C-alpha cells in the first residue's frame, strides 16, 4: 500500500512544527479571516449600502479575499500547516453536522423546520400580496433559507444518507402497485 494514501503519513493528520512568532500569528489570522469572510458577506446586504457597493463587497468577501488570504497564510505558515488547519476545520464541521447520530426526535424536529421553512417561498410565488413588502420580505425569506440550512444540520447524517440514496440507482423495486 502506498504510504501517501493510507491516511497516516499525510500532512493533514500531523500537526505542523512552527516557531511561535509573528509569522504564525499573522498566518493563523489570515487563515481565520479566509474562513470568516464568506460568512460575514451574509450581513452586507443588511447594512443599507448602495446596491453596487453591496455587490462589490459581497463578491470580494466570497470570491477574491479568501483566496488571497489563503495564499498569504500558506506563504507564512507553509503548505503543510495550511493543510493541517483546513483539514481540522473540515473535520470539526463534518463531525458537528454529520458525524453525530441524530435521535428520532431531533430528526423529526429538523424535518419539521425544513418543511415549515419552505412556506414563505410558496407564499411569495403563489400569493405575493400575502407577504410583507420591501425589506421585510427580504428578511423573511433570508430567515427561511437560514432555517432550512439549520434544519439540514439538525437532521444529521441520517438525512444525508437518505439524500445520497436518492441519487443511487440499484435497479430493485420493493413496492407494490
Fold topology:
Elements: H1 22-40, H2 51-77, H3 79-99, H4 104-117, H5 119-126, H6 135-166
Helix pairs in contact: 1-2, 2-3, 3-6, 4-6
Summarize the structure.
The protein is mostly helical. It is built from 6 helices and no strands.
Task: Summarize the biggest pleated sheet.
Answer: none
Structural class: mainly alpha
Measured by DSSP, the beta-strand proportion falls in under 5%
**pLDDT below 50 for ≥5 consecutive residues: which ranges?**
1-9
Give the number of DSSP strands: 0
Helix content: 55-70%
| Number of discrete helical segments | 6
Gap from first CA to last CA: 49 Å
Q: Name the overall outline.
A: flat
**Cα-atom radius of gyration:** 22 Å
Mean pLDDT across all amino acids: 79
Following the backbone from N to C, one meets helices and strands in this order, namely HHHHHH
Q: How would you sum up this structure, described in words?
A:
The chain is built from 6 helices and no strands. The longest helix is centred in the last third of the chain and has 32 residues, at 135-166. 68% of the residues lie in helices and 0% in strands. The chain has helices at residues 22-40, 51-77, 79-99, 104-117, 119-126, 135-166. It is an all-alpha fold and 177 residues long. Helix 1 (22-40) runs antiparallel to helix 2.
Please describe the structure with a list of short key phrases separated by commas or semicolons.
single chain; 177 residues; mainly alpha
Amino acid at each position: 500500500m502506498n504510504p501517501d494514501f493510507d491516511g497516516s503519513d499525510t500532512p493533514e493528520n500531523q500537526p505542523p512544527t512552527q516557531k511561535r512568532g509573528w509569522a504564525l500569528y499573522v498566518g493563523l489570522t489570515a487563515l481565520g479571516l479566509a474562513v470568516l469572510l464568506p460568512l460575514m458577506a451574509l450581513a452586507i446586504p443588511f447594512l443599507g449600502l448602495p446596491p453596487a457597493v453591496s455587490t462589490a463587497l459581497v463578491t470580494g468577501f466570497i470570491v477574491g479575499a479568501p483566496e488571497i488570504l489563503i495564499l498569504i497564510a500558506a506563504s507564512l505558515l507553509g503548505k503543510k500547516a495550511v493543510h493541517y488547519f483546513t483539514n481540522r476545520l473540515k473535520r470539526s464541521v463534518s463531525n458537528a453536522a454529520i458525524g453525530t447520530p441524530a435521535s428520532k426526535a431531533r430528526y423529526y424536529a429538523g424535518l419539521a423546520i425544513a418543511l415549515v421553512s419552505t412556506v414563505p417561498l410558496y407564499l411569495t410565488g403563489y400569493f405575493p400580496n400575502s407577504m410583507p413588502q420591501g425589506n421585510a420580505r427580504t428578511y423573511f425569506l433570508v430567515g427561511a433559507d437560514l432555517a432550512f440550512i439549520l434544519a439540514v444540520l439538525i437532521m444529521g447524517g441520517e438525512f444525508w444518507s437518505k439524500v445520497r440514496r436518492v441519487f443511487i440507482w440499484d435497479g430493485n423495486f420493493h413496492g407494490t402497485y
